[in-house]
Write a structure and sequence with these properties.
It is found in: Cell membrane. The chain contains nine helices and no strands. The protein is mainly alpha-helical and 201 residues long. The protein has one domain (2-200). α3 (35-59) runs antiparallel to α8, α4 packs antiparallel against α7 and α4 packs antiparallel against α9. The two termini are 22 Å apart.
Length: 201
């Protein structure tokens, strides 16, 4: 179950459109005023976790788990490589926007491919693999949604604390590399537990 949290952290807390908007809110002194935006992001993630979680329980049967696990591991490794190679354009972040609201966060995260990337492997692969369904699916989805609220919120906090001194993209590069290593470790863990061990037994 630690792999679920590690994967969620690795995907949710890397720079992406929603997190960069949170950073921008902090840089512009709107971190507190944008609380509704972060909550909208969390609700969108809750919706995605529940939808994919219920569908995943129906679609992914025990005999398919190793195959889906292998595909999921490959995808997570691909994502880790993409994150490790990505760069951040801080110039694009610093444009002063209007204050982001709850509806903005909800709609943006529901339409954000990164939201699907974060929820689909967890809900369709990791949840069924450890027997998370029913009430536990709802509780886990709530917990991960709270974690999702913290992603743009933490970026906003960093933006408000550091302000305009954030000018070195090497800081974000180092963060991306750390998250990529975390994701690669999760992929190897899933591969060992849910692909290799069932295959050799």
């Amino acid at each position: 179950m630690l792999a679920i949290v590690a994967y969620a952290l690795g995907v949710m807390y890397t720079p992406g459109p929603v997190n960069l908007l949170g950073l921008n809110a902090g840089l512009q002194g709107q971190a507190r005023a944008s609380l509704g935006f972060y909550l909208g992001v969390g609700l969108a993630m809750l919706i995605l976790f529940l939808l994919f979680g219920w569908a995943g329980a129906a679609w992914v049967q025990d005999d398919m788990l190793a195959m889906v696990g292998a595909l999921g591991c490959g995808y997570i490794l691909y994502l880790a490589i993409k994150i490790a190679r990505s760069s951040i354009d801080l110039g694009a972040v610093r444009q002063a926007p209007r204050t982001m609201r709850f509806r903005d966060g909800l709609v943006m995260q529901l339409c954000n491919p990164k939201g699907v990337v974060a929820t689909l492997p967890i809900a369709t692969l990791q949840f069924p693999a450890v027997g998370i369904h029913g009430v536990s699916l709802v509780l886990w989805s709530l917990g991960l949604a709270v974690l999702a609220v913290g992603a743009p919120g933490s970026y906003a906090l960093v933006g408000s604390l550091v302000g305009r001194r954030v000018a070195d993209p090497r800081v974000f590069r180092g963060f991306n590399l750390a998250m990529a290593i975390l994701l690669a470790g999760v992929a190897l863990s899933i591969g060992y537990e849910h692909v290799y061990r069932p295959w050799v037994s």
